Amino acid sequence: MLAAGGGCDSVRGTIWSPGADMPSTSVENRFPIPGAAVMAFASAPSPLPQALYCNECVEIADGVPNVIANPVDGTFDLSLSPGTWYLTIQKGEFRRVRQIEVVDDGSGVMNLEPADPSAPKPELTTLPHSTEAGLGDNIPKVAILEGAYEDQEPMWSALGFDYSNEIKLYETGVFSGGSAMDLLGNYAELSKYNLIVFPCGADMPTDASAKQNLERYVREGGKLYIDDFSYDFAEQVWPDFLSYFVRNSSPSGGEICGDGSNTSVGTCNDWESDYDFTGIPGDSDFGGWLALPSVNPGGVIQLQGAWNSIYALGEGQIGVDENGAPVKALPKVWMSGDTPAPSSPNPATVSWDYHCGKVLFTVYHTHTSSSESGDQLALQEKIMMYLIMEIQTCSDAPVIK
User: Fold this and answer.
1) Which of 66, 89, 185, 231 gets the highest tally of CB atoms within 10 A of its CB?
2) Per-residue pLDDT, 164
């Protein structure tokens, strides 16, 4: 139990990224997480489901003090009366519960932030990096298909995650009884996870069961994070949402790939060269977060090492209404920039709802392994964790069918 003075007026703090409470996590890798729910329960809340489920948005029960952390800097101010509470911070399936004793010492404020900004952040307000049910910690169940051109281990490990142990890895490249199909070809295995990550160069199997299972997985509440040369995991199942641009030596400089009907696997990969670009946020809160010195001390949103590019957005079916009629929408644009596609700026990071789940595609990916600054995260890796948090949030689409 954690005890502190302050009491009946205000409990204040900031929600921090996984691992920010660990002395071993570098100062540069501690950053705020906006928009998390902060709740105080009189008794311990029930554990989150330990497998795939439809995380529908619901009202917090009457009598439970709660507030949503600031959508830019993650700060919060929660009114609590003196007594014993189970303080709960949650963003999607990332949740930490700790018992606290609020004692009215006359000051009116219980400040949870350390005086030294370079010190590890408080355990009480840091989202967990592992699941420990006995402590009240939960993270999403994550599976990663290993990519040929991207090593995500440095990013996850820099934030304290137990990579390749608590996070399950599946190899790609062998699809006749290979380990990728152990996941994608077996819905019982797939449904053990809340989030599937497809790093650059994770090959899409041509087995029809993989597409069918991915569609069902997202429809029933699963989340997909897909980047660069792994675009097929989005295009093969949801071809309506995006088209791509592939550079070549033609007079026009390239051609449009994907027009709402499936192409062959790998057709839209652009092997011309990698490119860097300056990002333009497509969401005002996201842009505010990217302007924070603790997130991006340089100020410029410099993104590196992309290959593929998005040409245009399309309306795809995200679900059905109460009468069973299709509901369609364009993807949400998180980031744009001057990519190789002809018109500029072009979408570079997008997501869409699909029934109870969500799909995200981005043209850039992790780069810590090639950084000269040790385990200091590149900006696009902080962005990855931000977006993983965002697509883990509950679903309020008209599509819970």
Assistant:
1) 231
2) 86
